[in-house]
Specification:
By secondary structure, the protein is mostly beta strands. The protein is 3% helix and 59% strand. The chain has one domain (79-470, 495-722): Maltoporin, Chain A (Beta Barrel). A hairpin with a 5-residue loop joins strand 20 and strand 21.
């Protein structure tokens, strides 16, 4: 087998060595010169793969490129970065990408209906997502399941809080989320898992990874997942099938090629909105937690196929060239009845009805060309990265309404509507035919001003264009040559402590629409951040951040306002002078051998120009803590864990039968516990109990005057076999 020798400089040792998963490494010695540690040449034999958290078996994050495109450790990144690792995903039995995201520090979720969720942090909604570093537009207006992928295919997620316009083109001051897919492992490995649980939960996953040659230069991985379950909501069931295959090969020329395919089919029977919050007399409804607003024939599905390839070429001068491409095909279907209004307390009559059948198709291409490496200037080594990003997103949504007279919806009583006949549907007609194009070019450098002081500077040039025919009206939106600067200063007090300052501009296009259906103008503003990061042990990190952002054109929900022609879609108006100030603290990693911890406290206070609270459906404060411990001695086959999620109160000023009414959800705490018993290296069993004390709380308050109860106590029991 051929080998290759790389000269790794001290500044880059952590970066490059940690980005390699190696069957064999040989090294000579480490020696000190003039107070610095230098490495002699290291001979690396094997395939180069990205650092995978599933091989570390703890909560400690590795290097991250999500914030700046440079492969920096979290300690050297001038922004708040959090990572949910493969081990934490497994310990908490998180089965969807949305569930993983909800565990990240400061991230909150509010539900819109049975299939749409909204995530926010630092006071604002999250709309910037990446998959393996490729910026991917998410259709917030139409749900194609982009944030509801099965967790079986992900190694980890990285969440960079604050504005990230340098890489994404949209300097959203909330966060950018990067979903990192699993890659082939250096040696043969396989696992089969089966889960059963509350609400007829049934889940099966199979995961096999194998090298294809004796040298281990080419390997593949196949993951299959099937998940079906009922819910605490009457008549609502979900079913999901996922297929993921990936091949990685490393060529003698120093080129690493990854190709993969994802397929997901989601099906929801009994799809529906929340239950009405009020009776017709103005009193607050007291429906139980199984309350629903659906029918037995209402249904939703999305089907997505995504093909991708990623080519990395490593030059002899430590530079890397990357070309990545992704192509998506999506199909969407929704057939449902939306009950509006408020039922009579005694008779259950008086609610209105909106019958609709939607069908949609989407194609999307994402391309990313980058180059990154180091250079020498003034006798010091520095890092530099260039990037070109291009995205095309084509969407065609159609609607069919009932032909002839709509069926009677009968009464709505005790949190459930009477049976309704499915109508005969008319012909499909276009409601949203749009073509979105985004292009961006960026450059970023990390300059070593002195041994303890580094300056990160970058800028991005972005173009954004949307051609749209919306309910027959032709519209065009275009923004050219938008410049997004980025600056960060990092000072190392010691090898274990650093502090940073960062600044970036905000430019964020919006999916939010005015009452006439037009898109709101992009959000513009500034983001400032100061933080301290510490490495408290070999595998334990702590982070603290203060932040402030200022925004104009931020969309604010109009109480009772809906988009013309779409009675189930919220309308918004632009606001000026919005700002958010807050603080974050996080500790994550390994306290002692066998004891993992992930804990955080976040405070974010979003205010409008009058000092009034905005985005009130998301909490201002959150505490998240989850920890696991493997018992010592004769009990070391048993691992136990648990955690809490606390959030402060939320509210909504929503339209009621007697005018606008403020509906509250007070602060609440959820407690989760787990236990895993490892019978032998191959076989293990795990029990998870969520919401242990059966706390009642709203996941939705006031979205079209409706509510949704959070899940009551539930449990999952899984059995895993490794081979």
């Amino acid at each position: 087998m051929n080998s290759k020798t790389f000269l790794i400089r001290p500044e880059n040792a952590l970066i490059y060595v940690s980005l390699l998963v190696l069957p064999a490494i040989t090294y000579q010695s480490v020696f000190a010169t003039e107070g610095r540690f230098e490495l002699e040449p290291i001979e690396i034999i094997g395939r180069t793969l990205s650092a995978e958290s599933e091989q570390r078996h703890n909560y400690t994050p590795g290097p991250s490129t999500t914030a700046t495109s440079l492969p920096l450790s979290i300690k050297d990144t001038p922004q708040a970065v959090s990572v949910i690792t493969s081990q934490q995903i497994r310990d908490q039995a998180l089965t969807t990408s949305g569930e993983i995201l909800h565990q990240a520090p400061g991230v909150s979720m509010t539900r819109r209906d049975s299939n749409r969720f909204a995530y926010a942090t630092r006071g604002y909604g999250i709309s910037t997502y990446q998959f393996d570093g490729l910026m991917t537009p998410i259709q917030g207006f139409w749900n194609f399941g982009d944030t509801d992928w099965d967790s079986a295919i992900y190694d980890r997620i990285e969440v960079v809080r604050g504005a990230t316009g340098l890489l994404t083109g949209a300097g959203d001051p909330s966060a950018s989320v990067n979903f990192i897919r699993k890659k082939p492992l250096p040696e043969f490995a396989g696992q089969i898992s089966a889960t059963t649980g509350s609400h007829d939960k049934r889940r099966v996953t199979a995961d096999v990874s194998s090298p294809f040659d004796q040298q281990g230069r080419t390997a593949g991985r196949l993951i299959l997942a099937h998940d079906q379950h009922g819910t605490h909501v009457s008549g609502l069931t979900h079913e999901k099938d996922t297929l993921y295959g990936v091949i990685n090969t490393y060529l003698d020329s120093g080129t690493d090629i990854t190709m993969g395919l994802e397929y997901q089919h989601n099906q929801t029977q009994g799809m529906g909105a929340g239950f009405p919050l009020f009776y017709a007399d103005g009193g607050l409804a007291n429906f139980g937690r199984s309350a629903s607003n659906n029918t037995d024939w209402s249904r939703f599905y999305n089907e997505t196929t995504r093909a991708f390839f990623d080519i990395n070429h490593y030059l002899d001068n430590d530079w890397r060239l990357r070309a990545a491409f992704s192509h998506d095909d999506g199909n969407y279907g929704l057939t449902y009845l939306f009950r509006s209004g408020f039922p009579d307390r005694t008779t259950g009559e008086g609610m209105g009805a909106y019958f609709a059948q939607y069908r949609g198709d989407r194609t999307r291409q994402d391309m990313h060309l980058t180059a990154d490496g180091s250079f020498q200037m003034l006798n010091r080594y520095h890092e530099l990265a260039f990037g070109l990003v291009h995205t095309r997103d084509k969407l065609d949504m159609r609607i069919a309404l009932p032909s002839g007279t709509s069926p009677s919806i009968g009464r709505y009583y005790n949190g459930k509507g009477e049976a309704v006949t499915e109508p005969e549907w008319g012909l499909l007609s276009s409601v949203d035919d749009s073509h979105l194009t985004q292009t961006g070019a960026y450059v970023v450098t990390r300059l070593s001003l002195s041994d303890p002081l580094h300056l990160v500077l970058g800028t991005r040039l972005s173009n954004w264009k949307l051609d749209q025919t919306y309910y027959g009206e032709v519209r065009q939106y275009e923004y050219k040559n938008e410049l997004t600067p980025y600056a960060g200063l990092v000072y190392d007090f010691s090898p274990n402590f650093s502090t940073y300052l960062s600044y970036t501009d905000i430019f964020q296009t919006q999916n939010r629409r005015a009452e006439n259906g037009s898109l709101l103008d992009p959000i513009v503003g500034r983001n400032y951040e100061f933080g301290i990061k510490a490495t408290l042990g070999d595998d334990l990190d702590a982070n603290f951040a203060l932040f402030r952002s200022e925004q104009d054109n931020l969309g604010e929900a109009i109480p009772g306002g809906v988009v013309n022609g779409m009675p189930d879609t919220q309308a918004y108006r632009p606001t000026k002078g919005a700002k958010v100030e807050g603080v974050e603290a996080e500790i994550i990693g390994t306290l002692v051998d066998g004891w993992n911890i992930s804990g955080s406290y976040t405070l974010a206070k979003p205010r409008n120009m009058h000092g009034e609270r905005i985005n009130t459906l998301h909490p201002e404060q959150q505490v998240k803590l989850f920890t696991t411990y493997r018992l010592p001695g004769d009990w070391n086959k048993l691992q136990i864990g648990g955690g809490i999620r606390w959030q402060s109160g939320i509210y909504s000023d929503t339209r009621g039968p007697k005018g606008v009414i403020r509906v509250h959800q007070d602060s609440y705490t959820l407690t989760d516990v787990m236990a895993r018993y490892t019978f032998n290296p191959q076989l293990s069993a795990q029990l998870n109990i969520n919401n242990l004390f059966d706390t009642s709380y709203y996941e939705q308050v006031g979205f079209y005057s409706q509510g949704w109860w959070g899940a009551p106590r539930n449990l999952n029991l899984s059995l895993s076999y490794r081979f």
